[in-house]
Structure formats: C-alpha cells, structure tokens
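Field: COMPLEX_INPUT
Field: COMPONENT_COUNT = two
Field: RESIDUE_TOTAL = 943
Field: MODE = joint
Values follow.
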Amino acid sequence: MKKSTKRFLALLMAAVMLLAMTACGGKKDPAPEEPSGTEEPAAPEAPAGSKELTVYTALPEAEVIYYFNKFEEETGIKVNYIRLSAGEMLTRVEAEKENPQATLMFGGSTDNYIAAVDKGLLEAYQSPALSNTPETYLDPTGTWNPIYVGCIAFACNKDWFAEKGLDYPASWEDLLKPEFKGEVIMAHPATSGTAYTVLSTLVQLKGDDQVWDYLGKLNNNIAQYTKSGSAAPNAVAMGEAAIALTFSHDGLQPTAEGYPIELSFPADGTGYEVGAVALIKGGKAEEQENAKKFIDWICSEQGQGCYAENQSFRVPTNTKAPVADGLVTLDQVEVIDYDAVWAASVKTDYCEQFEAKIASAPKE
Amino acid sequence: MANTAAAGGKSTARTKKLNETKMILRQPLLLVAVILTILLLLLFVIYPLVKILIFSLTDADGAFSLANLAEILTTSRYLAVFGRTMLLGVIVAVIATFIGYIFAYTITRTNVPCKKFLKTIATLPILSPPFILSLSIIFLFGKQGFITKTLLGITGNNVYGMGSLIVVQVMSFFPIAYLTLSGILSSIDASVEDAACNMGASRWHTFWTVTFPLSLPGIISGCLLVFIQSLEDFSNPATIGGEYSTLSIEVYQIITGSYDMQKGSVLALLLLLPAVTAYLFNKYWVSKKSFVTVTGKPTQARKLIDEGHIKWPLFAFCMVVAAVILLFYGTVIFGSFVRTWGYDYSLTLDQYRKALAYGWDSLKNSMVLGLISAVIGGLLGMIIAYITAKRNYYGKRFIEISSVLMFAVPGTVLGISYILAFNTKPLVLTGTAVILVIVFTFRNMPVAIESGTTTLLQIDNSIEEASTILGADTGYSFRRITLPMLRNAFFSGIVYAFTKSITAVSAVIFLVSARWNLVTSKIYSLFDQAKYSQAAAFVTMLVIILLVFIGLFNGIINLLLAPRSKVPQVKTQKTEGTK
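Field: COMPLEX_OUTPUT
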C-alpha cells in the first residue's frame, strides 16, 4: 500500500522534474554549437551545405510567402520566417542581440533601420544590384538596402463618399473640411512608423511654426489616433472612418479582401517611406551567404518584379524592375524631398510634442 | 471543530513556524516538493524578472540609472494612465465577479433547466483570442454596425472607449471568476446550509449568513484574478479602447514605437505593484478567517433550491448574459462564413479552406504545447496549493508570492524578460518549444493555485490528521483525501491554463520561432491585414477544438480521480450533489 502511494507521488514529482529536465536538456543542445555563432559575426566561409535562411519580416504574410517561394525556386534556399510589426521586429532584434536568432531583417520603413544602426544591431552589406537604385534612397551609412517605396496617401472608403456625394480630398487643406468631422483616421506617431512619416511630412511641408496649427485643426476631424499603423486603413475598410492617412500599399491592402477603398493624393506634396532589408549583426554564421543572396535577389529586377506579380502595391526602388499596372509611382505624385535620416533623428522630440500639443488636447 | 488559525502571541507563532519547518524536514517527499518548487520558481520567475529589473534600471551604456523611473513618476500623463488602468480594473473585476457568482450560484444551488448549456456559456469566452470580441462589438455597434445602423438606424455611433472596453473585458474575464467560484461553492458542505434552513432561517438569510461568508475567499480570489487580467490585457484596449489608453498599451507603445525598451520595462514593473498588493491583501485578509466546512463527517447530497421566486430570476439573469455572449459569438461564426466580413455578405466556405492551409501547423503546435504546459501547470499548481495552503514554514511566503508574479506581468514584458534571461548562456532556450511551455506553465498556473488553495482552506485539518493517525503517510493522505477534493480546482486550473496558452497573444509575440510558431500570432497577423473573415474562421475552429478537448479533460479527470469504494469510511462523497 505504502509503496504504491510512493510510486504515485513519485510520478507526480517526475512530471514536475520533467519540466526542469527538459529545460536543462534544452540548454545543452544549442550550447555546443554556440561558440562558433556568437563571437565572430559574418564569418565569410559559411558551410556550403546550409540551405536555410532565418528572417524576421515586417511585410504582410500573404506577400512574403510569395517572395520566399520564388526565392527558393531560384536558389534552393528555404526561408524560415516570423512575421512581426516593424517596431516588434526591432524590439526583438535588440532583445536578442547577445545571441541573434535570425539573420535578416526584411521590410519595414527605414525609420526602424536607422534606429537599428544607431543601436549597433545591423551588419553593413550593400548589394551590387543597388546600382540601379536612385541615390536619394540609399543609406548614407552603407548598412541597409532600400527595396521599395510607398508614398503617403489618403485611403478613402468608396461607399461612404458615394453615399454622401463628396469628392475625395485632394490636398492637405481638404482634410480640414467640416464634412469630414470625425471621419479622418491615422495612427499615433509614437507607435506607428507610418504616422510618424505623416507627421514628419507635414513638418517638412509646412514648417515648424505652421504645422502645429494645422494639426490642431485637423485634430477636430480625427476619429482617433490608432495604436498600430494598419489599424487606420482597416478602420476605413470597416466603415469606422472615411479617410485614413497611410502608405499607399497599406491603404490598398484591405482591397485584396474586397473592402471598398480607393486612394487619392495631396496635390500640395506628400512624403514617402523607403522600405529596407539588412543583415542582423551576429546572425547565424552558416546563413550569411544565403542572406546576402537574398538581399541581392530582392534588390534585383527579378526580385522587385515580384511586387507587380503579387499586386503588393509597392513601388520598386530598382528602376529596371517592372511596375504593376495602375500602380501610382513616385513620378506621378507630387512628392516632397523627404529627409528620412533627419526625420529619424528628431523623432522622439516631435512625438512628444505631438502627444502634448495634439493628442491630449481636447477636441472642439 | 474548526481550529485552524490559532493566533497566539508572536513568539508562539514563531515557534509554530519553526516546528512546522522541522516537521517538513522530516518528510522527505514534502521536502523534495518544497525545494523543487522553490528552485523552479527561482529559475523561471525570479531570474527573468531580476534580469529585466536590472535592464530597466540601466542606461544605454549599462550604468545604473534611475532616470527612466524618475521621468515616468514625474510625467502627469503616465500617472493619469495609471489611474485609468486601475479604475478599469476595479470596475471590470466587480462586475465580472458579480456575474460569475450568479452563474456559479445558479448552477450549483438551484434546480434550473439547461445547466449544461449555462456551464458551457460560462466558459466559452476564455476559449477565444480576446480581440475577436472587440471585433464583434465593432461590427455590431460601430458606425456601420448591424444593430446600430441596420436595425436601429443610428449613424455615427462611436463604439471606441471605456464603455466598450468594460463590456468586452467583463465578457472575456468573468469565466475566471465563475471557475473559481463554482469550485468553492460546490465544495461547501451541504449540511451547513441545510442546518441554517432547518433552524428556520429564510433562504435569503441563509445565503447572507452562511453561503456568502463561506464563499468570500472565492469572491476575493475571483476579483483579484479578474483585476490582474484586466490590468495586463493588451489586445482589447488596443482594438477597442480608442483613446482610453491603459498601462499595458503604453508599455507596448514605448517599447515598439519609441524603441525604448528600458523605459517600457520600468513602466511595466509599475504594473506589478498593484497586482502584488492586491494579492497580498487577499492572502492576509483571507487567512484571518477560518472557512472549514468539509469536516469529514457524513453528509447527504445537496438539496437544490426549487422555489420559483428564487430560481427563475437567477435563471433569467443567466440567460440574458448567455444571450449577449451568444450574440457576440454568433457574429463571429457568421463572419467566418461570409466573403468579406462587414462588407460582402455572400456565403462561402473559402475562409476555412484558407485558414487551414495557412495555419494548420501552428494550430497543431499550439495544441501540443498548450496541453503539455496545462498538465504540468495543473499538477505543479496543486502541489503549490498543497504545500502552501495549510502549512507555515520558512520559504512559504516566497513560494506564494513568486508563483503568482508571472500572472501579473504584461505579456510584452514577459516575452522580453524571457529573451533577456534565456537567450544567452548559461541557459539558452530561445527558439525552442521548451521556452513556450515554460512561459505558459508559469503564466497560467496561478489560477490553479488560487482555486486549489481556496478549496484546501475549506477542508478541516482533522481529516488528514485522521488519515495520518490511521497510519497513512503524507503521500497516501494527499492522494486519497486531498487530491479527490482538489478535483474541481485541478480541472478548472487545467482548463484555464490550456485555453489561455492557446489564446495568449502579447506574451508570445517575442518568443515564437519559425519552427515553433503559434496559432495566435498567426491570427494576430490576419488582423493586421484586415482578413477578418479568415480570422473568424480560425477562431471558430479553435473554439470547437477547445470544447472537444475540455470534454475529454473532464472525462479523464473524473475517471482518474473518481473516489474509490475500497476505503469507504474516511471519504469525501460530498463534493457535488448536482442530482
């Protein structure tokens, strides 16, 4: 009798210990291979056998699957990826910097990449294929590679405008019209790279003196400042707002599901984001060559040709790459000479001003 | 007969503690359990939290700095957000516990129809990723909402804000209160209430003087658990909160928007304070009272309340709540069968096909890891409840407090603290399934501990003492006496842990790997792409699978822990009397 009890309790204990054991076992597995991976980043003699690549990506999943499959077809390299928002991607890379778990950061605006360079998280690599990319998009520090461009647009709910019989806004001033009260939506610049690009565009467009005055007026028409960048166009898709201030490719994303969204652009000038790809410092040594192959591929015309095939609404930075039909390219829209590096350097300051002067101010 | 808290002078208490510590040293099994528990808690709770504490109190160069803390404490905005978070937590805790109590009381005490249905309804909301309810409320009551616009013709209804947040959080979290309370209500000895009735007390009087005081520990625990859940909830405020920002949102915002992990961590640690305070208050307050009702003396099965004027209003209340929940879930299910939720209502099965093709692997991962961690967490939770509830020794407080800490940490911070702790030697776990199992285990275990403890507090020591006197050792008493009584607690702990693991969002964003991706991070990214119908299809499948699993769990636990007839005298027979 006693024995059976002991056995039962031992079983209980064993279950608990199993947890401890697996935990300890887990450590022993990766530990031995570690020394090769951590201390000497970017060892050029990668084992030739490695046919894998680990990527953190900020692009929508439906899109990246297409690119990764295409890349695998051409090179035989299998891409393992995790999809995160751009800010989450950067956070994760920073938290893992002592022992990076991925080799490549792919997609998301240069804002994140500039911050990552500042924090020393990236390994410099410039693809030879960048020769077809206009100089304005290039990284002055030579670390990350620009791969697509998208400009700020007004994503409008087609049905709402049809129902009210109104025209799409065609300038920043149009957004202030009283009929758009509570119908304009954008993310909060402090949480969303998209919204910060909007803010920074307006600062560069209107100057420090005028911009807060303008935003104060715009605030009266704003439905809410959403937490994530994608929440703004999604709210327009659901009819919770009529106009989202967002990047063109994000604004059109819900149309793939059938939601009624069309774009218009401010005639008085708009800003744009450049999306990038870069090597993570200290990433897996055996994947370095594969990662460079991927960067070269996505900077090439074949790689960026995928944007059009996949209807991703992204504008290629490679001038040789084909452009999707009906896609708005930067030469058709009035774009300002957007200074991304300056914008990234003053981000904290402007976000704090925005919070103090606009977001927490009462609406009329 | 109830002589648990013999509070004498300070010195006697200390002697008692010392004696009990010595006693534990003489019982090898118990000693092993205590030591092992302490080691596990040190490694998987304290270590990551210390890591992030150190991290949050250093500046970019690694030097010690209180600048972030000072900045947060002097920014009026953060203080305002702190206040709003607490307010929301208190309101949600009170309402959710109230609803949970009525459900638990109606199901355990009255003779109403459709009990199975009510039970299912009361656990349904913990079965889905919470932001799906936020989505439902937008499609039902938003500017284009089905009820507001189509049925009532109201245009421009603003659904974002505190009101919606309360509705959604209450709906998401009242099951926790229900699970805690139904466990405790069904384990109150029927004879206590019967005695009151026999002595002429009215039902109302019996309730207020007997049932309610006896269930107070459960009420407090329920409130506490809901309060903490509300504090650390991320997805609902993010989806439906509008401008009503909460601390967990701010933390996320600072970390992923301003790229300032240090400052975000400091703010997150502030969240721990109220949670821990609430917990300690609960412990102190509850332990002052004696709640022994399961005495080991024979009792008969409970007689259920059959008076119409009591049971029908309770039944009606439950049905109204059930109707609201069904409305919300019905919206989700409906949304999963249409082409474009909220826009194109042509019926299709496409969403299910797409969802399966897109996320079958991650769904499997979630199931397997959730199951493993739920079982481990359930067992560990029962062990912790057993070694802390009735004993007092050196190290007990540590176990009590550290075992609930992870419950209160905002998910974002939990994820980061685990990366900081387990991404470098001596213990590298990132990228493995183990780290996910561990996070789930320690994050979701507190519900098992809480319900286990509240149940144990009701059991008179004399039962176990009798067993010991009759020659059984601790292990035997635990298995044959305590464990069967803990069945309900164990069950609710496992169900909670399992469903929470499968529906966790913010904690796992930073811990999933390409090999071990989870279904919630997939659903999360569907939301980002406005693929709402596909997300709805996913959630519908998830709920169905979970319901099946819970049914199986229930069966297995009943089978394993059913009281055996071999030792009929010293036994329990009185846990439930639904018939």
